Every structure is written in structure tokens, then in C-alpha cells.
Amino acid sequence: xxxxxxxxxxxIVNKDxxxxxxxxxxxxxxxxxxxxxxxxxxxGGNVVCDDVTIADNAxxxxxxxxxxxxxxxxxxxxxxPEDIPLEIxxxxxxxxVVNKPAGMVVHPAAGVSxxxxxxxxxxxxxxxxxxxxxxxxxxxxxxxxxxSGLLVVAKNDNAHRLLCEQFAEHSIDRTYYAFCYGVxxxxxxxxxxDIGRSPYDRKKMAIxxxxxxxxxxxxxxxxxxxxxxxxxxxxxxxxxxxxxxxHLASKGNNLLGDKVYTKSKKIxxxxxxxDVKKYLNEFPRQALHAQSLGFVHPISGEKMYFESELxxxxxxLQKVLQGLK
Length: 325
Fold this sequence. Notes:
alpha+beta, 7 helices
């Protein structure tokens, strides 16, 4: 392996490596760099062969090829303030309540350093609790990237600790609206099932028999769309990762637009126009909204309650679904 500044040049592929995946070949050439790191470099367009970018980890190397690997400049480890529009529902000296749009990650993580809620908060709010660390200042709880709705953020450490206590005691009131395939039966009920990492797919959560955390969701069907879909009100007794998505999926009522827990659910009724079926079956994000949030103010002791209307995309979805009745 030859290194010129921040560019590594691999040896020429010989017959022993012909047909090997490029990420495996590069990991043999760069033993001090992890395969996952190399995969990210490939996906990021940092590997070139004869001026052609190789961005597919499954690419099979050919005899006689050589690859140039460019290491990108190191990024600042600290999240940077960004002038990102942010809907602030309420704020005072201790807390800030925001209405997060779908598509926004809550805090920086591997592969996501910009455009997060934290980046926006650092621009609009200069005093955040440090308990969450530099990557998660003030963050008390999270909602998924593609889920919209309400979040409370702590501005100082005392508020952070006291809010965390309420979440730990499950005394926070949280209501979500979900749009799912089919109609849950019964129309009102409680779904219980410990949630943990799926033993079959580590990217998913699942109801598990061992090593899970207690999870309880109270639900009520609000609207029935001709038996094909439903609007469901969900109240969280606990707050586990992907809880509503996993619990409704366990009943066979996967969320519209959910790319992870969809299974093979589709609306295929012949009476429905093809463009409507396409719209519903290809909805671009999980149809889930954090509609209300209630808690005791960590400093004043006052009971706080906030509501958020469905965003435009879910209002449009609801309108289309109402046409199915």
C-alpha cells in the first residue's frame, strides 16, 4: 500500500483476489482500518479506480485493477449551530418545547453530523443542559427521524435531571396518532410485550422473550377507513425505541409508510383507483405523529400540556383515507 498525503493507493489486484468484494479487498490492504470504516468511505464516494468512483460495497474487483482511497478531512467533533427553521411551541429559562418535523434526526450520531435538532437548538437557544454530553445537549427524550411531533428539551442541568425522573417514572403524558393498515381488534385495548433488539435483524426492534424492556401501549381506534386502514390514538405508558411501530405491527397493523416494519402489507382493493393505492402504499414516511405532551414543569411544579396538529403530509393522508369509507 502506497500513501501520498491523504490518499492511499492499493496494490494491483492479482488472481488470488479476483472476484472478491471491494470492501473485503480493501480491508486486506488496510489492516489498521476497520471494514465498516472502509464501507463508509466507499459509500461516500471516496474510492476511485481509473477516475471512476466505486460506491458499491458489493463491487467485485478485477485482476489488474488498483484503487485510490481518499480520506476526507476530519469533521469537528462538536455539533455546530445551524440556522435551521425550528417551530418553538414554548420556552422559558428552564425548558424549550419544539414541534419536530419529519425527516429531522434528533441528535448527531454516526454518519449524521449536520441538520439535526441539536444543530438547530444550538443556533436558536444558547443555554442547554450539558448532561446529555456535547452530542446531545439538553436532550431528554427522542422520537424517530421520520416521526413528527412534540419534544421537550432541558435548558439547565437541574431541569434535565427532574424531567428525566418523570420519564423514568412513566409519569409523562404522551399521545401519538398513527395511521395503520387494517383495523386493530379490539377497537380499544392495551398492547404489552417486552421490546429489545431483534435476534434476527439487529437494525430492528421486536417483542422478545428475553433481554427486553417492559413496554405498554394503550390504543384506541379513532377512524375506520372501510376496514382497509385506521387512524389510531396511542398513549405510551412506557417509551421504548420504536414502541408504537413494533406493538401495532405485532397485531398485524403495520404503519403506512414504515420502511422497517411493513412486512408485505398493501391496500389492493380493486374498487380503489390505482393512483390512490400507489399513494397509500408508497407513503414516504411512517405515518406517526407525537400529538400531545404533558409533564410537570421541573422548576415551577406547574402542570404543562401541549398539543400539535397533524402536519400537512398527514392531513393529506387522512383526507385520502377518508375517501375510502
